[in-house]
Each structure stands twice: as structure tokens, then as C-alpha cells.
Amino acid sequence: MSVSICVEVGYELHCLTVTDAEWQMIKTGVPFADTLESSYEGEKFSYQFSFNSGSKGQLSVDYIGEDDYSSGEGFSGSLEDAHIDFDNVKN
Q1: How many C-beta atoms lie closer than 10 Å to residue 82's C-beta?
Q2: Is residue 84 in a domain?
Q3: Which end of the chain is more exposed for a tag (fewer CB within 10 A), N or C?
Q4: DSSP 34
Q5: How many CB atoms lie within 10 A of CB 30?
Q6: Residue 1 — pLDDT band, cuts 50, 70, 90?
Q7: Could you give the number of structural domains in the chain?
Q8: What percent of the chain has pLDDT over 90?
Q9: 22 or 88: whose pLDDT is higher?
Q10: Quick check: is 12 in a domain?
Q11: Which residue range is the domain that position 50 belongs to?
Q12: pTM
């Protein structure tokens, strides 16, 4: 099973997919971070998803463009504010 955690950054939805084991860690409050490579309005960006870094349930997403000049905080809130999709497809 995998879990997609999606947040709105600007006008677009960006989704990080984590494994079931990673999801279990996130749910229990263990700090976890991972990077999503994606684009926004045609420019490539890296989105750093950080979970539980300040308190349990906290989620923040920072971004940096490939030119290293476009950067900032794209989302700051709680895991409850994210769109979460569970993929139960078995191979």
C-alpha cells in the first residue's frame, strides 16, 4: 500500500507518495521529510515535505526552483489540512 499526501502550493496540487511504513511513522508523530521533484507553471521545483518537525501532526512544504532564486514556504499547516489518498491496489 502507498499513501499520497497532497497540498496546494500556489494554484496547483502537489502530492508526495509514501510507503505504508513511512505513513505509519508519520501518523505516530515521528519526524519525517522527503523531497518531491515537480514543476509549477512550467518551471522545475523541488518540494520538501516535512512532517512532525515542530509538533505531532504538523506539515510544511518548502520549495526551491532550479535557478535557486525562487524559493519559499508553499504550505504550512497540519496533516489534517492535506488531501490524503490511500492506494490499496495489490500487485
Answers
A1: 21
A2: no
A3: C
A4: E
A5: 12
A6: confident
A7: 1
A8: 76
A9: 22
A10: yes
A11: 2-77
A12: 0.89
CB of 47 closer than 8 Å to CB of 61: yes
Residue 65 grid cell: 526552483
The half-sphere exposure of 1 on its side-chain side, counting CA atoms within 13 A, is 10
The verdict on residue 87 lying in a domain is: no
Per cent of the chain over pLDDT 70 is 95
Q: Which tens digits make up the pLDDT trace of 34-75?
A: 999 998 888 899 999 999 998 999 999 999 998 877 899 999
C-alpha grid cell, residue 82: 492535506
Return d(Cα 45, Cα 70) in angstroms, integer: 9
Which pairs from 79-84 meet CB under 8 Å and 24+ separation?
Answer: 79/5, 79/26, 79/51, 81/7, 82/5, 82/6, 82/7, 83/5, 83/6, 83/7, 83/13, 83/15, 84/3, 84/4, 84/5, 84/6
Mean pLDDT, the chain, rounded, equals 91
